[in-house]
Amino acid sequence: MPVTPALDIQQDVALTTYNTLALASRAEYFCRVTTTELLREALGWARNKRLSVTCLGGGSNVVLAGDLKGLVLVIDIGGLQVVDHNDGTVQVSIGAGNNWDETVRHCLARGWYGLENLALIPGKAGAAPIQNIGAYGVELSELLRAVRAVEIDTGEILTLANADCSFGYRDSIFKGSLENRVAITEITLDLTTTPHLRLDYPALAREIGGLSSPLTAELVYEAVCSIRRRKLPDPAVLPNVGSFFKNPLVGHDVAAALLVEHPELVCFPQDDGRVKLAAGWLLEHAGWKGRRSGGVGVHMDQALVLVNYGGGSAQQILALATEIRADIQKRFGVNLELEPKILGL
Fold first, then answer.
1. Does the annotation mark 339 as catalytic?
2. Residue 142 designated active-site
3. 142: phi then psi, degrees, rounded to nearest 5
4. pTM attached to this predicted model
């Protein structure tokens, strides 16, 4: 008989290694859960003590701005299995604690396609629908069938279909009406057994265009990894949370006016008539690339990435972000939104 893991709740735990910005923060109470049953047990423990609950995945999209009160739960639920397989499609159920890039590679190795453009995105699978992760012309919402979660206040298990998730650009119901109300345990994706390559994103098209090998999903995966490694620092080497700002969506008239003044502005028309501007272009042309402030700064190769050079604080990171946002608003009349979630304020 397999041994059922016991609930292990610790007190006053350092969270430096649980956030990729390597910011100093402590959890009042801390628990790592590896099953849905342990998660529900931990939530019941927190309810009995009337404690707030904060869920963490890989810590790759959060800024820990202070110590976290209540119970901090690290969701480490594994597992990956086929739910259904027929007629060129495969439904795959993925535990929320699975490393995202390892999941992408595993699916590719099994001949399950669709995730290759989402290569090398840091974090865990459970965080993917919260942010509606996207890269190089593909968003998770195009592939996601369902999300399973546990309601924090009741312990009830919920299943949300794609249509229930209110997906948008880097947005979902989990950042809206369900924010801080559920803990995601599992996602189900609809993948294919025949590759349908998505190569329309300009940077990816340029990368692929320079290759002589026959195009495969595996080659697309490697091309995306090459681009990301050139553009984005490894958080294990230089702490960061990837892109710190969302690409702003503006009206067509706003974009047209900006293009008159800045013809080289990188932008992408959207189906709804709005235009997505490249936030990295705005920051770079405002002179922010490579600038430092104390122990933090803007990465020398990618203006969208704020980094902790060592000993930097959340206050320094947030102050730098505020300064950048004010400057972009003044120069271009564009409001930048933060991409990571701020915890502990």
1. yes
2. no
3. -75, -15
4. 0.91
